[in-house]
Structures are given as C-alpha cells and as structure tokens.
Design brief:
With about 375 residues, this protein is α/β, with parallel strands linked by helices. It has 16 helices and eleven strands.
C-alpha cells in the first residue's frame, strides 16, 4: 500500500487527501465500535475532492463490514483494505459489497523475485536450494542477508502470531498442543493426499488422543482461513470434474516449515519443489488441482480462465530410465492434446512424445 500511496503523491495528490490506519498498531487497537472509527476517518478528511482511505488489518475491528460499507457508499472515497487471513472475505463483507470490489491475493516472493534480491549470486542452482531451505517472505529475505538467526527469530514470531492470535485466540481454542501436532502433520505431509481421518488416526497412534473427523476438519479450516496452508482439490482427468474427496496441502512459505524441528535441511526436496511449483502456478493464473484418473495421478492440473488445461509433473531428477518412464507415464495416459510438462532440476531440456521436459529453474525464471 505504501508504494501505491507514493504513486498517488507523485501524481500530485495532496497528503491531506490520503489517510492510512493500521489496526495492529497500539493507538488503533482500542476501537470497539466501528462508528467511532468511521467518525474519526471522516473528521480527518477534507470535505471536497477525491479522498483515498487505506485500512490495514481492518478485520480486527468488531463489525468491520459495516465500517467498510459505510465508507464505500461515499462516492468521493477510494477505499483500500487489507487483511492477513481469509476471514476478511468469508464474512458478511462479501454480501454487502457483492460485485463492487476487486480482491487481490498476495503471495510471498516467487523465485524470480527472490533472485532479484540476490543479483550478486550467479549460481542459480545454489540460490534455488537456498530458496527452498529458507523463506521467501520479503522481510525474511531481507533479514537473511544480515543474519540467519534474525530470519529464524522473525519466522518464529510470525508463526506464533498466526497460530496464537489468528487461530487460537480468535476461535477460543484451549488445546494448543493438539493444534501444534496437526500443523506438524500437515507440514510433514505437503504434497501427499490426506484426509481428516488420516490425521485423527495418527494423533491417536502417537498421543492416544481421540479426535473426531469434524474436529480435525474444523482445525484445518482455521489453518486455511489464516492462509497458513492451501488445500488443493482432486480433479478427475477423464471425467473433467472435481472429486469430493481428500486433498493435498501446501504451506504458504517453506520457511515456516523449515523452522520446525521436523525439518532437516535438504530433506524432502521433491515435495518442497511441488510446493514451489504450486504457488508459481497460482501466480500465473488459473485454478490449480491435483489430477486423478483411476490408478493415475498427475501432480497438477491447471484450468486456465479460457477453459484450457495444462498438466504438470514435478520430479527432483529423472536421470535414470526407470524414474523418467514413471513420470512420463502419468502424462502419456492423458488422452487429450493440452500442454503437458515435466519439471525437474536436470539440465537437458527436451520434448518427449509431445511432453516438454524443462529445467525447473529455467521455468521459474521465465516470465512468459
């Protein structure tokens, strides 16, 4: 938002016509009545000319939907709101503003963006390994240039903010250890098809704690609403339809997985690569699914906005013939002419039976 405000000022917009409130800041955290916030905003703005109002973490205000709607109906106000969890758009707000807003989802740095922060690093393979074993949050990226310890401190603080404030306090959860165990399970299972029953069974095996399917499902919903994890639905390739069954899950930033004790540096690189590819596909536009067809699975199916499909298989390396054939087989079984890609860290880009085998780093750095 700061960049956009700077752009407005560069175009001659007077500072008096721009108002910003961050509701995480101490002086703004005491508001309990949206009407008081509304009156405060209106008192600080000029009566004439176009005004620009920026509200950061507005969902922290009780009944914030009414505040947003009251400001929105003022035709002299351009309104911009941000929030760090899906509660912002899962509330009454979407009903009040139906058809009158544009939602923009922001993600951590892509590898191409991350690489611009380390232009002095010419070894892209080494940089990519650093990308997967570190964090791609902008602030964490900057801190990593100073000290790994600072980066870890920042990530732990961010993680605790999400888990303690966004999840535990908001939903009045008492079993913090249970919450933590479920997160650990999900982080350790990125790229695997799992169900609430899988998680409940594992918890019972390890801790003797019994949780219902509905309870685990509720916890998972809290994680997805906080944008900590992203669920990916299964897509029937043959029937061209979604399956109402289990999901895969990916973590918004591998740095959050990497700070947990369950992580080992350079461990689980294949699934970490999948995580990177998933978010890159989201950035490039379209709906991203996991492909399923009888006994066949494809890592990702992308349904573009024009209805066209793309298929992606991800493997760390396919240097041996058996692995190559296994990865190609999943794509060969698809009986249509939509583009098919095999992404690996190998350097021999080629086309095999119409399937484009591409080096993952080349693909990530290609802006086309």
């Amino acid at each position: 938002m700061m960049e956009f405000q700077a752009l407005l000022k560069s175009k001659g917009v007077d500072e008096k016509r721009i108002l910003t409130l961050n509701f995480e800041e101490r002086e703004n955290s005491q508001f309990e009545d949206w009407r008081i916030v509304y009156d405060l905003i209106m008192s600080r703005l000029p009566f004439t000319e176009k005004k620009y109002v920026f509200l950061d973490e507005v969902q922290l205000i009780p009944h914030f939907e009414k505040l947003v709607d009251a400001l929105y109906v003022n035709k002299d106000i351009d309104l911009y709101i941000t929030g760090s969890n899906a509660y912002l758009l899962s509330s009454e707000l979407t009903t009040l503003l139906s058809g009158r807003y544009i939602a923009i989802n922001l993600h951590p740095f892509s590898f191409a963006e991350y690489a611009t922060a380390f232009e002095e690093q010419k070894d892209t393979s080494r940089l990519f390994r650093q990308y997967m074993n570190g964090s791609c949050f902008p602030e964490a990226t900057n801190l990593s240039k100073i000290s790994p310890e600072l980066t870890n401190t920042y990530l732990k603080s961010l993680y605790e903010t999400i888990v303690v404030k966004d999840i535990s306090k908001r939903h009045h959860l008492r079993k913090f250890d249970t919450l933590q165990r479920i997160i650990n399970f999900l982080f350790d299972s990125i790229g695997s098809i799992i169900s609430p029953n899988n998680i409940a069974d594992e918890l019972k095996r390890v801790t003797k704690e019994s949780l219902s399917h509905n309870t685990v499902q509720k916890y998972i919903r809290f994680f997805t609403e906080s944008y900590l994890i992203y669920p990916v639905q299964l897509y029937n390739i043959k029937g061209k339809r979604l399956l109402a069954s289990n999901c895969k899950y990916y973590v918004v930033d591998l740095g959050l997985k990497n700070i947990l004790q369950t992580n080992k540096v350079d461990a689980d690189l294949g699934h970490k690569m999948e995580n990177v590819v998933y978010f890159e596909l989201l950035r490039r536009g379209g709906e991203v699914y996991v492909g399923k067809s009888e006994d066949n699975e494809v890592d990702f199916v992308v349904k573009k906005y024009d209805g066209q499909l793309e298929y992606y298989q991800v493997a760390y390396t396919v240097n041996d013939e058996k692995t190559l054939e296994r990865e190609l087989s999943s794509l060969r079984k698809i009986r249509d002419n939509y583009p098919k890609y095999l992404l690996t860290t190998d350097f021999d880009n080629s086309i095999i039976d119409g399937i484009k085998k591409i080096n993952l780093i080349d693909w990530l750095l290609d802006s086309k």
